[in-house]
Each structure stands twice: as C-alpha cells, then as structure tokens.
Amino acid sequence: METIKVNTSQHVDIDYPVAGLGERIAARLIDLGMILGIGLIFVLLIMLGGLSSALNNVPNLLPIMGGIYFAGYVFYNLICEIFMNGQCIGKRFMKIRVISTNGSQASIGQYFIRWLFRLVDFGLTAQVGGLVCIAVSEKKQRIGDIIAGTTVIKTVLRTDLNEIAFRPVDEEYVPVFGNACSLNDRDIELISEVIATYYKTYNTDLIYSLSAKVSALLKVSIPTGMNEMDFLKTVVKDYTHQTANALY
Q: Over the stretch 38-67, which tens digit does the pLDDT of each residue have?
C-alpha cells in the first residue's frame, strides 16, 4: 500500500495511506449529489410558487440566482479545500484529505493549481483523464495533483482490533501515571495512531520519538522494566481510566 509521511502538530512523522480511486470517486459523487440536490430544491421552490412573485417583480433575479448557483458549482472544490483544510464535504465524509507531497498542509497556490487542472482532468477528457491518471500513478495523483505537488491521503488509519491502544479499562485498575489526564484527546489519538503504524511498518523510531515526547510532556521517566511501547500503551490506559472516572 502506497503511503506518504505526514508531520503532525506534535512533530511526529506518521505514514498515512494514500487514498485510492474508489474513495475519490465516492467523494466526488457525494459532492455532485449535494450540489445537484441544492439545485433541485431551488427549482422546486420556484415551481411551488414560493419565489414566483419575486421573480415576476424582478425579471433579472432568476439569471442572477442562476449565475450565483453556477459560480458556486465551479468554485466549490477550491473554496472548500482552502477553508476546510484540504477537504470538501465528500472528502470529509470519506475521511480523505488533500496534502502536499512533502507531508505538509497544501498551500492556497497548490489548491488553486489542482482546481485549475480540473478542466484537464475532468472537463476536456470527459472525466476519464483524471481517473486514469489516479489509477496508474504511484501516489494516486490526477494530473492536477502532479502539477500542484499534492496528493490525497486517508485521514484515518485502518487498525485491527488487537492493535488498538484505546480500550476499556477495568474499574479495579490502578493508574501508573497519575497525570496522564493532563493530555488531551488529540494526544491520545496520536499515540494510538503511532502504535497502529508500528504494527504495520515496524518503525521503532516512531515509538522511541513519541515516548520521549510524552514522557517529557508528563514530566515522568519510563519505569525500569517498561519498554517504550508498553509506556505508550500504559499512558493511554491511564488516560482512559482517569477520564472515564471523571464522568461519574
């Protein structure tokens, strides 16, 4: 499976899988369905007479509203990706996102270039050019992605049940690190992602790097006899226990 290294806000590199053709087609269909649905609602309102009097009184209103709808359709992807961190509604639903191929967040210029090349990927090639390019390219990029230096990744790692660090904790459990609850949900999610990534790539550098950052953040030392992986799993277990008890 093709992956790309993403540097998180905690400065830990995680390999995320590149989104496949199926996810991208599904995201595209969701977006088209939503846009067409909005247009259908607009037409139904007119047919039901809710806007008929206004349109009769202002003859130019209909082409103006049509122009606004058309502009929204054309610029939908560009606007969404700029203001939704590389996602549109379809991509968010499918849990995929546009990023730069160097692992950083794509720039406005990169979003603009990939949007501009939609004309080549989908318009001039009748939707075929972009799909073929995604299918055959190494990083699942359409032409616009290649020119802009972007790709689309899955934002959620596929993790087997036995690899999940965030599990229910026995009520009799006694936390090892009493201040684990000083972390937040995003920290715990990151730890779980790193653990899941290790089981897929066996990259021990990730475990060593994150365990050092977490121990420094909690201002604790890894106990004698506990390795870095066990330390991270224990922190998650302690956090789960402490936050669960705080709800009662």
A: 878 877 766 665 555 555 555 566 677 777
Residue 26 in tokens: 């599904």
Q: What is the dihedral of CA 47, 50, 56, 58, to 10 degrees?
A: -120
pTM, whole model, 2 decimals? 0.65
Residue with tokens 């996810």: 23
CA distance 96 to 112: 18
- Spell out the domain ranges in the chain: 3-154, 161-246
Q: How many CB atoms lie within 10 A of CB 179?
A: 15
The H or E element that residue 51 is part of is none
Residues 6+ apart with CB under 8 A from 167: 237, 240
Q: Give residue for tokens 């999940």.
A: 164
Taking CA atoms, 34 is separated from 44, 72, 201, in Å, by 15, 12, 38
